[in-house]
Amino acid sequence: MTDPEGTPAPADMSAASAPDASGVTDPATAKPDRRPGGRTARIRAQVLAAVRAELAENGHEGLTMEGVATRAGVHRATVYRRWRDVGGLLVDVIDAAGEIDWQPPDTGSLHGDLTALNEEIQESLTVEPSFAVALMAASFHSERAARAQTRLWEDRYAQCAILVERAAERGELPPGQTDARRLLLAATAPVYHHLVLLRAAPDPRLPEQAATAAVLASAGGAFTARGEGSP
């Protein structure tokens, strides 16, 4: 994924700083890759930082090209020329999340990895103001942003498949028999459901409880990879 200037795109699940998904990092706290690019890169960084701040503070409804240009200290003609509209800004800020050098947790156990992952997700969704929540809401207003966010989540889940691979290598799971995507969805979904759908207060016990449930289910064969031709 690249920005309008050709710079590659991340938990920004991630899009002002640290994950999320499992894309899961909040870009507002993550540290982006330092890439050369001179003035073009500096302008992009200023504009995307302004988008994140505007989106987190005012939501999608308050996100305007003029507001972003003012906050970024960039002429609005530059913003219009490079990003064209709010949808273009959203796509690039999501793509920029993919540029963050985020790695899935490696605690030495599947249970520990899933717990740590859930804790990252919970933090990104509960920090105030939450850029991650604002970005998810914005994706419902822009088809282009929705597609970009889907790509981001696909990448994050693919990255997190290593958690299942390592668990199999340690003997925690049977080699090659666990569907990583299904296990990861089961492990992380309770956190999103609790915080985003129910809008409930953060539960410090939930990340570990959801991880425990997923590990127990995987041990029982709940996420066994379906063979070719299986229903």
Automatic annotation (TrEMBL):
The keyword Cytoplasm does not apply. Residues 1-40 are annotated as: Disordered. It comes from the Bacteria. Residues 64-83 bind DNA. Residues 8-22 have a biased composition (Low complexity). Residues 41-101 form the HTH tetR-type domain. It comes from Streptomyces synnematoformans. InterPro entries: Homeodomain-like_sf (IPR009057), HTH-type_TetR-like_transc_reg (IPR050109), HTH_TetR (IPR001647), Tet_transcr_reg_TetR-rel_C_sf (IPR036271), TetR_C (IPR011075). Keywords: DNA-binding, Transcription, Transcription regulation. Coiled coil: none annotated. This is TetR/AcrR family transcriptional regulator.
